[in-house]
Q: What sequence folds into this?
């Protein structure tokens, strides 16, 4: 017997787009998410005003896309939904500017819960606070919408002052195309903590350290950097694509029996109890706010540690080897079309 998950997923039929018919939405920021939300909302018939700082480099793009542009403060004053789509680290400062424009019954709408969850933004009690977070970068949110396809998303209500917060968030999700694919209901806390943990322990942090550790282990043992690059980084995509399509099972089914047996017995040697304990520590720092405090202070200090780590990552050997090999692969792919077997020339 399988347990049905109790996750609620909302689709187009659950949302009433008409709710936004006489609403002005202020979209603050015209970056990855901002340009997609603004254009999708406008194409869905919603009145949109984009809020950008005076000297914004995005102003021309927004205007070229047929959108009205104002300052964040002006945009918020005429809107009843203010969608905060500037980077998380600058949201508190931008919010300070727009807070005086929020009226009872207005909505502050987010695509990530960080600033609300960690108390960096504290909206007035009579303002709805919602989240519609597409699970995808903005260019795909826009591209899918134009192709009559959807982008899966998350929906959460932090504060329902009006009694209409969820219905309105669903309408917003529909207008940007998310309910076409499905929208999962969550909370600000769950979205924020799982998002941070996932990117730290598994997606961004975990995978890069795993790749580098594997690469270094092979190179230190005398194998060629090129081979190490292919085995530990390049092939990652093939494996991840299979898991994306059909879960772990499709990946195990597709690799050789030797790879399957080796993986099933040796994976847990690498990600052992100690690694799992470390994951728990990473989760704890997310839950108790230590990570958030560290990142907020790092930003206040001008990001010295961040810059230094970025630089170190860029200068890792694997990046140099990879750049060289990816160039060769572009060449190899081009000649495949002429039915030639591409030979990768030895470099040294
Ligand atoms: P971007 O970094 O793409 O935002 C850039 C926009 O913010 C630009 O219009 C820029 O304007 C403006 N901006 C930057 N700094 C300032 C500032 N100091 N004052 C005023 N405006 C500023 O953001 P994202 O779209 O990546 O993120 C927006 C939100 O969406 C975040 O909460 C993020 O967590 C969330 N999110 C992002 C996803 C993604 O894939 N990117 C996925 C899901 C959620 P200018 O042209 O003037 O520089
Ligand atoms: Mg207003």
A:
């Amino acid at each position: 017997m399988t347990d049905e998950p109790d996750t609620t997923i909302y689709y187009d039929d659950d949302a009433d787009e008409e709710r936004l018919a006489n609403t002005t939405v202020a979209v603050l920021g015209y970056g990855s998410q901002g340009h997609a939300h603004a254009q999708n909302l406008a194409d869905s018939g919603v009145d949109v005003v984009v809020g950008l700082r005076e000297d914004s480099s995005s102003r021309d793009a927004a205007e070229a896309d047929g959108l009205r542009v104002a300052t964040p403060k002006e945009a918020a004053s005429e809107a009843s939904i203010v969608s905060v789509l500037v980077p998380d680290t600058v949201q508190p400062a931008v919010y300070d500017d727009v807070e005086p424009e929020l009226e009872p019954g207005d909505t502050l709408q987010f695509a990530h819960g960080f600033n609300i969850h960690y108390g960096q933004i504290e909206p007035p009690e009579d303002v709805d606070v919602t989240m519609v977070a597409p699970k995808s970068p903005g260019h795909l949110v826009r591209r899918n919408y134009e192709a009559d396809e959807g982008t899966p998303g998350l929906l959460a209500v932090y504060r329902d002052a009006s009694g209409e917060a969820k219905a309105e968030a669903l309408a917003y999700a529909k207008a940007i195309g998310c309910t076409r694919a499905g929208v999962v209901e969550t909370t600000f806390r769950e979205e924020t903590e799982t998002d941070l943990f996932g990117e730290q322990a598994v997606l961004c942090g975990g995978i890069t350290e795993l790749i580098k550790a594997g690469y270094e282990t092979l190179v230190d043992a005398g194998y060629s950097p090129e081979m190490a690059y292919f085995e530990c980084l390049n092939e990652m995509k093939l494996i991840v694509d299979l898991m994306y399509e059909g879960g772990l099972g499709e990946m195990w089914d597709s690799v050789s029996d030797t790879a399957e047996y080796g993986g099933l017995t040796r994976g847990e040697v690498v990600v052992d109890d100690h690694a799992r304990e470390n994951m728990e520590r990473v989760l704890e720092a997310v839950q108790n706010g230590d990570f958030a405090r560290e990142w907020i202070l790092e930003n206040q200090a001008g990001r010295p540690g961040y810059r230094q780590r970025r630089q170190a990552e860029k200068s890792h050997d694997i990046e140099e080897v990879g750049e060289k090999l990816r160039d060769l692969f572009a060449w190899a792919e081009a000649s495949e079309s002429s039915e030639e077997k591409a030979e990768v020339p030895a470099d040294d």
Observations:
- Confidence is low (pLDDT under 50) at residues 335-348.
- Strands lie at 9-10, 24-28, 47-51, 68-70, 81-84, 107-110, 128-134, 153-159, 183-185.
